[in-house]
Amino acid sequence: MSKLDEFALIQFLNHKKQSEELQQKLGVIKGIGDDAAVVQHSPGSQLVMTCDTMVETIHFNPYTMLDEDVGYKALASNLSDIAAMGAVPKHALISLSIPKHYSSSRLKKIYKGLYECANEFEVAIIGGDTSKSPKHLNISVTLTGEVETNQALLRSNAKVNDLLFVTGFLGCSAAGLHYLLEKQERHLTSAKLSLDIQPLVQAHRRPIPQMKAGRLLLESKRCHSLNDISDGLASEAHEISEASKVGILINEDMIPIHPTLRAYCDLVGKSPLDWILYGGEDYHLLGTVSRSNVEYLQSRFQRQGIPFFILGEVIDQKGVHIKDQYGNIKKIQKEGYNHFN
Ligand SMILES: Nc1ncnc2c1ncn2[C@@H]1O[C@H](COP(=O)(O)OP(=O)(O)OP(=O)(O)O)[C@@H](O)[C@H]1O
Ligand SMILES: Cc1ncc(C[n+]2csc(CCOP(=O)(O)O)c2C)c(N)n1
Ligand SMILES: [Mg+2]
Ligand SMILES: [Mg+2]
Ligand SMILES: [Mg+2]
Prior knowledge:
The protein is an alpha+beta fold. It folds into 2 domains: 31-148, CATH 3.30.1330.10; 155-332, PurM-like C-terminal domain (Phosphoribosyl-aminoimidazole Synthetase, Chain A, domain 2, Alpha-Beta Complex), CATH 3.90.650.10. Helices cover 35% and strands 26% of the residues. The chain is built from 11 helices and 13 strands. The protein has helices at 6-14, 20-25, 67-83, 104-120, 172-183, 198-205, 211-220, 233-244, 259-268, 272-278, 294-304; strands at residues 28-30, 37-42, 45-55, 88-98, 124-132, 138-148, 163-166, 223-228, 247-251, 285-289, 309-315, 319-323, 329-332. Strands 8-10-7-11-9-12-13 form a 7-stranded mixed beta sheet. It has a 6-stranded mixed beta sheet with strand order 1-2-3-6-4-5. Helix 4 links the parallel strand 4 (88-98) and strand 5. Helix 3 runs parallel beside helix 4. The protein is globular. The chain starts with 5 loop residues before the first helix and ends in a 9-residue tail after the last strand. It binds adenosine-5'-triphosphate, thiamin phosphate and magnesium ion (3 copies). The site of one magnesium ion (MG) has 3 residues, from loops.
C-alpha cells in the first residue's frame, strides 16, 4: 500500500473524475484545484464555495489556542480562501464533532469566537451539523461567497514576467506556534504574554483574512493570479507555478521580515526564512501582477493602509527558485505543511 500524501491526493482528485459534460451542465466554472470552487449563479454573478476543517491535536491544542480562538480561526481560514478568489463572503454552515469530555461552556466560547469573526466580516451563519466524536473536537466550516461573473482570481493565470507580491508579513504564525508549544501552559491568555511576543501569538490565534485586499485586487482588474498562504510561501508559490505552468523566482532580499519575528528568531536560534517558506497559517494573499501595474496597485494599497510587498517574479523555468543575497539561485521543493507527512 502506498503512503498517503496530501499533495498527491489532491492531484489525484484534480484529475477528471467526472465528465466535463456533467460539470458543465451543473454550471461548474472552476472545480477542484483552487482556493474555492466557482459555479454559475445568476446572470451577473457567480457563487464561490469552500470548506476547511480544524481538528484538535492537528490544528490546535490547549497549549496553543483558547476556545474563542478556535471558533474565530475556523471561520477566518475559510474567509481567507474566499478572499483569495476576490469574492465577497456570504453564508456559512458549521459542522461540529464533539468528544464527550467537552463542556457546554467550552462550546459556547468556541461559538463566541465564531460569531465574533462572522459579525466582523458580515457572514451569516445559517446552519450546520453536530455529532459525537470519539476523542477530539473537529470543526468544519463551509462558506459561500459571491463574485462578478468570470472575474474570480485564480491560481492559474500567472504570466511570465509578472511580479510576485504578498499582502503582509509571513512566518509570524509559525513563530507564535513555536512559542506556545515551548511554553507548555494550558489556556494561556494574551494578558499573560509579554508585549514582544504578542504579535506572533496573535498572528497564530487570530489571523486576519485579507478580504479588503482580495476585493481591491479583483476590482482593479490588474491582478493575474492569486492564492492564500495556509501551508507556507514555498508550497503556495508552487501551487501558482503548477496551475499557471510557469516558474517563480523569489528574491530573498525582498522578503519582508517582521521585526518581532526577527527578534524572536535571534532569541531561539531559528531562521526566519524557514518559518516564512515552510511554516504556514499566515493567511496573507500571494499573487502576481504585470510590471506595468505594480505602481498603481502599490498606491491603491497604500491608500487603504494594506501592506503590499513585491518579493519576486514569474519566470519561464518551471518550479520555484530562490535567489540569495549573493545572487546564487537554488530550487525550492514543494515543502510546507502537508497532512500525512
Ligand atoms: N476531500 C476532497 N475532495 C474533493 N476535493 C478536495 C478535497 N480536499 C481538497 N479538495 C480540493 O482540492 C483543492 C485544494 O485544496 P486545499 O485544501 O489544498 O486548498 P486550500 O483550502 O486553499 O488550502 P488549505 O486547506 O491548506 O487551507 C481545492 O479545490 C479543494 O476543494
Ligand atoms: C498543535 C498544532 N500543531 C501544528 C500546527 C501547524 N499546522 C497545522 S495545520 C497547518 C496548515 C494549515 O492547515 P490546513 O492545511 O488543514 O488548512 C499548520 C501549519 C498547529 N496549527 N497546531
Ligand atoms: Mg487556500
Ligand atoms: Mg483546504
Ligand atoms: Mg493545507
